[in-house]
Amino acid sequence: MESMTYAGSAGVNYALMDPFKLQAQLAARETDKEIKRFGFNVVEWTRGESAFLIETPWAYFGFVVEGLGTKSLVADAMRLAKDLKSLTGVTHYDKVAQCNAAMAFNDLCTVGAMPLVYGQYTAVGESEWFEDEQRAKDLIEGTKKACLQARCVWGGGETPTLKGIIVPGTVDLAGATFGIIPYNNRVINPARIKHGDVIVMIESSGIHANGLSLARKIAEKVKGGYLAKLPDSKTFGESLLEPTYIYSPLIEDCIDYGIDIHYAVNITGHGWRKLMRANEPFTYVIETLPHSLPIFEFMQEHGPVSDEEAYGNLNMGAGFALYVPQGDAEYIIENIAPMLGFRAFIAGHIEAGEKKVVIKPKGIVFEADTLAVR
């Protein structure tokens, strides 16, 4: 059986999308001077990072805009699974809302910025989408709870009806967040990465909100679709809808406790290739993998999806990574992460040299040219 790929099977081709992102970054640099009239400066090295920073006389301001992707389509499909009585009528949009907000919060905190204000974008193909009161209520409550988790104010949003652009009956969710870093020593700058740093991984809750286009294709071909049972007795659809963890409180608490974070990675699009996002020339050596999750085992088996394809595009059980000195790793793992309900572990280390990611347990090497986001 031919293996499924994110590009060929799901139509998500980073080789086509990434050049656009690079061109946009180049064009954006030409606007940098506009902010100087306020006495502010663009933090140039953050172009190409997960979040953008502006330096002001009082603090650093961070900004991120992110989209949910197609996870809402899984929620819609599960609601229609009438032969599974326990799920009939349940919208799952509280979980979808958390995933949507988490995309922005988790990117913002990679540079050390803590979210101050969140704005949500809720675009529909027809205004009748809002007639479903339970779905709308779940979306609102889920967004509120996500903001409270992130210690952030929900400031508002936009709710356009885009007839002819968005398919009737569906919704396009996205969000933006504005954050702050009060002091220079709280900025997470990749220039601090050092030979010998350890890679602390924080486990994910599941697929989070990346790779759903591939998962939906697998649901189309597997017997039972979203109702197919996984080894842990959950259905495929239930597992896909596990809400994304929000990691920004972990970063804030680590900084408050004096942890010297040299770099932070939100493992979303491009999968574990994101571990080498920083421009600096280092080799990221992975020696220990996170606990295996049934959702990824199921996808790999029923795709089938190869190890290289899976680790190159999905989080595979690792939602976030911190690069820290050896002495700080133990405190994160034994104290800070458990207080927030996360499981963290030392996954590997960093070596000076050629830029690449080496996943030893799987015999996978991702070279620098496989991540062209900057």
Brief description of this entry?
The protein contains eleven helices and 13 strands.
Distance between the termini: 35 Å
Structural class: alpha+beta
pLDDT averaged over residues: 95
Q: Tell me, what's the shape?
A: globular
What percent of residues are in strands? 15-25%
Q: Report strand order across the widest sheet.
A: 8-10-7-11-9-12-13
Q: What oligomeric assembly is this protein in?
A: single chain
Largest sheet, in brief, is: 7 strands, mixed
**Helix segment count?**
11
Number of separate strands:
13
Helix/strand order: HHEEEHHEHEEEHHHEEHHEHEEE
Helix content: 25-40%
Q: Gyration radius, to the nearest Å?
A: 20 Å
Query: What are the segments in which pLDDT stays under 50 over at least 5 consecutive residues?
Result: none
Would you mind describing this structure in some detail?
The chain is built from eleven helices and 13 strands. It is an alpha+beta fold. A seven-stranded mixed β-sheet has the order 8-10-7-11-9-12-13. The chain has a six-stranded mixed β-sheet with strand order 1-2-3-6-4-5. The two termini are 35 Å apart.
What structural keywords apply?
alpha+beta, 31% helix, 13 strands, 11 helices, globular, seven-stranded mixed β-sheet, six-stranded mixed β-sheet, single chain, 374 residues
